What we know:
The structure holds 2 protein chains of 2 kinds.
Chain A: H1 5-17, H2 22-27, E1 29-32, E2 39-41, E3 46-49, H3 53-56, H4 59-74, H5 77-80, H6 86-103, H7 126-138, H8 151-157, H9 170-183, H10 195-216, H11 228-237, H12 243-255, H13 297-317, H14 323-333, H15 339-353, E4 359-365, E5 380-383, E6 389-394, H16 401-417, E7 424-429, E8 433-439, H17 455-464, E9 471-476, E10 491-496, E11 506-510
Parallel strand pairs in A: 1-3, 6-7, 6-9, 9-10, 10-11
Antiparallel strand pairs in A: 2-3, 4-5, 7-8
Chain B: H1 2-12, E1 16-19, H2 26-36, E2 41-45, H3 51-55, E3 57-61, E4 64-68, H4 71-79, E5 82-87, H5 94-106, E6 108-109, E7 112-113, E8 118-124, H6 138-142, E9 145-148, H7 153-162, H8 180-193, H9 215-230, H10 235-246, H11 248-262, H12 266-271, H13 282-298, H14 302-317, H15 321-333, H16 343-355
Amino acid sequence: xxxxxxxxxxxxxxxxxxxxxxxxxxxxxxVEKPGLGTLAVDxxxxxxxxxxxxxxxxIEELAGVIYHEIAHLLRDHAxxxxxxxxxxxxxxxxxxxxxxxxxxxxxxxGAPITPALLGRPDHLLAEEYYAALQxxxxxxxxxxxxAQPEPSGADQSQAGTDPQGxxxxxxxxxxQDTASAPGSGGTDDAQPADRGDASRSETGDSDGSExxxxxxxxxxxxxxxxxxxxxxxEASSQPPADPVGDGRTGGSTxxxxxxxxxxxxxxxxRCGSCATGRQEPWEEGPPxxxxxxxxxxxxxxxxxxxxxxxxxxxxxxxxxxxxxWARWAQAQLRPRIDWRRELAAAVRHxxxxxxxxxxxxxxxxxxxxxxxxxxxxxxxALRRPVPSVAVIVxxxxxxxxxxIGQALAEISGILRGLGRREGVHVIACDSQVQTCRRVFxxxxxxxxxxxxxxxxxxxxxxxxxxxxxxVAIVITDGRTPWPGAAPRGMRVIVALTxxxxxxxxxxxxxxxxxxx
Amino acid sequence: xxxxxxxxAIQAGxxxxxxxxxxxxxxxxxHAVGAALNLPVEVVLASIREPSDFSGLPIIREAGVMxxxxxxxxxxxxxxxxxxxxxxxxxxxxxxxxxxxxxxxDRVVGDLPLPTxxxxxxxANPPEQAAGGWDLSAPLANRFCHISWSxxxxxxxxxxxxxxxxxxxxxxxxxxxxxxxxxRALVASFIRHRPLLLLQLPQSEDQAGKAWPSPxxxxxxxxxxxxxDAVQAGEDVAASLIAGCVGEGAAMEFLxxxxxxxxxxxxxxxxxxxxxxxxxxxxxxxxxxxxxxxxAIKTLTxxxxxxxxxxxxxxxxxxxxxxxxxxxxxxxxxxxxxLPLPQKELREFIPLLQKGGLM
Lengths: 516, 359
C-alpha cells in the first residue's frame, strides 16, 4: 500500500527528527480508508488514512499525529486500557501523551486533549486521568458510569429497549448517534474554562439528549457505544469554532454515512483501538494474511524493545532525547521489581523454610492410620507449627513513618495470609533498643528514638524473645553496623530504603517510597 | 488463544501450568479442551492431597514396601491416554510439590508409570492471590510451560449472552515430530550465539516460581516451537509458548534473533540488486535498507555505490519509497567526488525528501 506523498513525507520527517523512533514509525502498516476523514491507528499497528486528509493538514501536523499514535502503541495503551470504557480511556490516554508532546512543541491539528482540559496536573498516568474522568462523569449522573464496559446499556434499557440488536443492528443506530451528537448542542456550548463549568454544561446536555435517545428505542448497548455524557464531554472539549474539526466531521458523514460510526480524531479523544484496546467497527480484525496483516502482541513487544534500545543508545550520544522517552526506555529495558512482591516472596520463603513449617512429617502417624489398609499403610501427619516473626525498625530518623507503615502493613498482610494471627513483635531500635512490643495492626506501632544506629542491638533483643523468632525482618536505611555472624536459628530479611551493603547471611530487599 | 496454546502443549506432551486468579474459568477451559480432543480428564486437587498420594502409599507386603498408586492413576493407566489435571498446585505444601516432581515430568505415580500419552496440566493461583499460598519451588516451576490466564471481558460478555463456544482446538498432524530436529537446531544455534541464556537461575524469590531458562526448558521450548509450526499457529501463540518455557526475557531475545535471521544479508543484496525483494514489514525493510547502505558506505567502490542505488530504486519500485528515501539521504551524504551522481534514481526521491524537510 502506497500512501499519499504528504503522508510519506510526514513519516520521513518524523524519522528525521526522532531517529530513535524509526523502527516503530516504519512498522506502521498503511491502510487506505476513503471517507474516514482522518488518520487512525488500530492496536495491530495498522495506520488507517483518508487520502483526502493528507492535503488538509500540513506535513508538520501529519508528522505530529503519527508521532502521537506511535506513542499510544509504544506505551501499550491498547493493553493497559482494555476493559475500560473506550471513550474515556481514549481521552485519558491522549492526555497522558499530549502533555509530553506539547512540551516538545509538536504540532497537532485541532485542539488536542490536555490534562488541563480534564482539570488534572500534567505527567500523570492514563489510568489516573481515567479515574478523574470517571469521577467527573459520575458526579452529575449517579451510577450511570460505573467503569464497566457496558454502563450505558443499563442506563438505556430502562427506556424499554431490548438487548437483542447485537451485531446487525449496530451500524444504523450508532450512525444515528453520531448524527445526533454534533447537533445536540455540545459544540455550541461554552469552552470549558474550568471543571465546574464543564460538568454543568454536561449535565444540561445529557438531560437534553436523553429523552431523544430513549425515543429511538434502539439499544446502543452492544457496540461499546459511548454513554451520552462522554460524547458531550468530548464535543465540548473541542473549540467551538474550529474549521479543521468542522471540515473533518462534514467530510466523514458526507463521504460515506454508513462508515463513519465514530469519526476518529487523533489527539483529541478518538485515535482508534491503539488507545483503547477495543476494536472499532471500521477497523480490520486481528493479525492475519494480506497486504497489511497487522502486528501481533509478540512482534509489537519486539518492536518496543528495539525502540527502547535505540533510545537508550541515542541518549548516551545526544542530549535532545525527551525525558519521557528516556524514562520509558529505562522501564522497558530494566523493569523495576515491585518491592512488595519481593518482600512478600522473601517472607513467605523464610516462613516456609523455618524448621517445622507446615508440612508433612512421619514423626507422628496420621489420623487416617488404621482406617486404610488394616494399619499396614504408613501415613504421615500434617503439622503446622506457627513460626514466630520479629520486625526490627530503624528509628534513627532517616526513614520516614509512612515508609515504615507501608512496610509493616505489607508484612502483616503477608503473615495474615499465612495463617498467623498472633501479631508480630516490633522492636524499635536506634543505637539501642527503644521499645519492644507485640502489635496486631500497623497503626499500633509506636516508634521512638533517633540518633545513632546499631541494628545488631535489635537482633540481639530479638534473640532474647520467648519464643525465639525464627524470622527477623529488619527495616533500615542500611547505614548501621551488623553483627559478624547470623543470629542463631533465625532467618534475617533486610528491607533497605536505599542501596547499601548487608551481610551475606541476610536477604536484601530494596523498598521504595513509591512502588510501581 | 489460551485454549489454542493449551491444546498444542497438551498434544506435544509438554506439562502446562495455567496461572490465573480464582474463578476465571481455568478448570472449565481445560475440561472443554479435553472434550474437544476426546481425552478423559482426571482432576486431582493437589492442595488437599498428601505426598503419598503422588509418591505412592507405602504398603508392607512380603516382597517389601510397595508404593501403591491411587485410583486416579490406575484409571489413567488403564485408559492409556488422558489429561491429568492438577488443580491448585501453588497452595500445595512444599512436601506435596516435591512429590509432584516425578509425576509432572516423568509421569510416574508411586511405582506405576503412566502412559506417555497422558498429558499433565496444572492450574495455580498467583501466590499473592491465593489464600495460604506457597511459591512454586524453582525445580517444579522449571518443569512446566507457564501460561498466564488473563481475563478477556469482551469474550466473557459474548459467552454469557450467546453461550460458550466449544473452543476450536488445533490437532497436531501425525508427523509433527518431524519438525523437531529443525526446531532443535534453531534453538541450539541461538544458544551458541548467546550461551549465557542457556541457564539462568531465578535471582529473586518471587521469580523462582515462574518460567526460567534451563537446558530442560529450552528442550521443551523447541518441542513446542515445532508443534506450533506444524499447525501454523501464529507468532503470538509460538511466542507465548516459548515464553512459558524459558521466561519472557529469554524468549524475546530468541524471537528477535530468529526474526533477524530472516533478513537478507546486505552483501548478498549488493551483489545482486535486481533480485532484491523488500520485506513486507516496514521496520524490516528499513533494517535491510540501512544495513545495505551501511555496508556500501563501509567499503565504497564505484560498483558498490551504483549497486546500492539500484537496491534503493528497486525498493522504491516495490512500494517502499519513503523508507528508501530515508536510506537514500544517508547514502547521498557519503558520496565521494569520484563517484557519479545517480541522476535518475535520485530524482525519484527529491520531492519526497524536500517535503519531509530532509533537503
